[in-house]
């Protein structure tokens, strides 16, 4: 990559690790900063749909992700009501025979796989380090002072520093995350051997999902409205999760009953960020949640971060100047990421506003429309992805 010899990545989450791998694979020398003193990732699980898996393929880690996680080869998603009675089934698509429609994996395992790839590519990882000063005095370089006191010159700075991004402040000015009024409760359990599909249980104003994440584990993820500014003592999370979803039976019941003070439970208040374009200033760009943190209802935030990373490296390898590539990257990604955010928000809001009276009508509508909605969502993503500004000139 002629114009980018040395890149600095700020943030070592999904977006940062993926960008570091993609750039290093393209021959760029990469330094990656991670504020945490040691790799310490929220556990529980994550599911990655086919588009995110394709990006992981480009990063050279798809086989490891598939074997470290749990692939649902036919993409089956079973919708049940809160008692466990069937509503309908849908099937997530894949776009390639070698890429499963969906894989569930422990977040820590996914990170371990990305970290091994970084090591193999000799990315210079600085844990416990952040950028304290970023100067763009010339058009050719960015001068960055790190928290360890050193100063260096980089041809590119990638802000992959998550929803509370400091790089975003530099690029787009103050833009705080917005609370959505919804909370997510997650817990990890032993997987019964016969639980091999993704299951979504539809309560009134509540959802409870079950997703295998390895040969022997699965995770539960439950969403519902939660008051703004509410803080719950961590020790109380298992009991709170149990109480929130007490009405749920069917396949979730055994896992809810098993929750105890020792259980691995996480609570997250759901926030969003939608930074307007441009996503870059000079040679500094933001990707992943820093630019477009989404609600989790379409399960696409991680996949969007992975796609960002792969496309960024691809666009920078084209024969255009760095700023044009960064501008084109933002213009290409913005409509797709906004579509995912908007769809996800609508799904979350619609779910939260339900009351018991409309459940029968909702279930009837789902039987008629759920598969079409899955199809339309991914078809629209394909269209938006095909409209890349530089794609035609590649
Ligand atoms: C409840 C919930 C469930 C979700 N489920 C799914 C799912 O199933 N599938 C899916 O695809 N997506 C899912 N997502 C979205 C997904 O988790 C995020 O989109 C993804 O983690 C974003 O990655 P990121 O690297 O941009 O940000 P982050 O994961 O937030 O990583 C940012 C990293 O930067 C570091 N950092 C921050 N500031 C600095 C700094 N100043 N200097 C150095 N380092 C810094 C942080 O420590 C962190 O390691 C979910 C999100 C939520 C909230």
Quick gist of this model?
With 394 residues, the protein is α/β, with parallel strands linked by helices.
CATH superfamily of the domain at 6-73 and 101-176 and 273-354: FAD/NAD(P)-binding domain
Small molecules held by this entry = flavin-adenine dinucleotide
> What's the CATH first level of the domain at 6-73 and 101-176 and 273-354?
Alpha Beta
Characterize the main sheet: 7 strands, mixed
Work out the strand percent. Answer: 25-35%
Helix fraction? 25-40%
Provide the succession of SSEs. EHEEHHEEEEHEEEEEHEEEEHHEEEHHHH
User: Would you tell me the structural class of the helices and strands?
Assistant: alpha/beta
Number of helices: 11
Number of strands: 19
User: What's the rounded overall pLDDT mean?
Assistant: 94
Protein name: FAD-dependent oxidoreductase
InterPro entries: FAD-bd, FAD-dep_Monooxygenase_BioMet, FAD/NAD-bd_sf
Domain FAD-binding: 7-318
Keywords: Monooxygenase, Oxidoreductase
Protein described:
A hairpin with a 4-residue loop joins strand 5 and strand 6. The relative contact order is 0.17. The protein has 394 residues and is of the alpha/beta class. It has a domain at 6-73 and 101-176 and 273-354: 3-Layer(bba) Sandwich (FAD/NAD(P)-binding domain). Helix 1 runs parallel beside helix 4 (107-120), helix 1 (14-25) packs parallel to helix 9 (301-316) and helix 9 runs antiparallel to helix 10 (322-352). The protein starts with 5 loop residues before the first strand and ends in a 9-residue tail after the last helix. Strands 6-5-14-15-16-13-17 form a seven-stranded mixed beta sheet, sandwiched between helices. A six-stranded mixed beta sheet has the order 8-2-1-12-19-18, with helices on both faces. A three-stranded antiparallel beta sheet has the order 3-7-4. It contains eleven helices and 19 strands. The chain has helices at 14-25, 50-58, 62-68, 107-120, 166-172, 237-244, 253-258, 289-292, 301-316, 322-352, 359-385, and strands at 6-10, 29-34, 45-49, 70-72, 76-81, 86-91, 102-106, 124-127, 131-135, 142-146, 151-154, 156-159, 178-190, 198-202, 207-212, 217-225, 265-272, 280-281, 284-286. Bound molecules: flavin-adenine dinucleotide. Flavin-adenine dinucleotide (FAD) binds at residues 10-16, 33-36, 46-48, 52, 130, 160-163, 166, 184, 268, 270, 288-290, 296, 299-303, 305.
